UniProtKB/TrEMBL annotation:
This is CBS domain-containing protein. It comes from the Eukaryota. SMART domains: CBS (SM00116). The keyword Repeat applies. Residues 9-67, 86-143 form the CBS domain. The lineage of its organism: Eukaryota, Amoebozoa, Evosea, Eumycetozoa, Dictyostelia. InterPro entries: CBS_dom (IPR000644), CBS_dom_sf (IPR046342), CBS_domain-containing (IPR051462). Keywords: CBS domain, Repeat.
Length: 147
């Protein structure tokens, strides 16, 4: 069984953010969409980086950013751009790659998701650990006998 990344990846409802967006916008997008990572793209859809919920937690927990309330936290986040904390050159995979390659790449890179890009570096999807687990469940779940 040779399952390809394109069969699992999320390509519809793909949430992204620009480098010039502020960190409060990134945090709101992650929370509103119940996701853990946002690919950072330019105006042409080319992948420039990735920002994760962990990156944002680390930014807000910084000893350099002092706050007392959620409102103050959001005000501080409004002062910083996504480009200041995004991971540049994130680990990526192409859509025609076997899913097993995505799993291996996530494991050795210790990431929970991979941006899926085309040959020109344009973002076309995301594949996550959850996608891989869903695939594993489908493979391992017993098929009920047919009458």
């Amino acid at each position: 069984m040779n399952i390809l990344v394109r069969q699992l990846m999320t390509s519809k409802c793909l949430y992204t953010i620009s480098m010039d967006s502020t960190l409060d916008v990134a945090l709101k997008s992650l929370n509103a969409n119940s996701i853990h990572r946002l690919p950072v793209v330019d105006n042409d859809g080319n992948l420039k980086g990735i920002v994760t919920d962990r990156d944002l937690r680390l930014a807000t927990d910084s000893p350099f950013i002092q706050f007392e309330t959620n409102e103050e936290r959001m005000e501080k986040l409004k002062q910083h751009k996504v480009s200041s904390i995004m991971k540049q050159n994130p680990v990526t995979i192409e859509d025609y790659s076997p899913v097993v390659d995505a799993a291996k790449l996530m494991r050795v890179s210790n990431v929970g998701g991979l941006p899926v890009v085309d040959k020109n570096g344009k973002l076309i999807g995301m594949v996550t650990r959850s996608d891989l687990l869903d695939c594993l469940i489908k493979i391992l779940e017993p098929v009920p006998p047919q009458s």
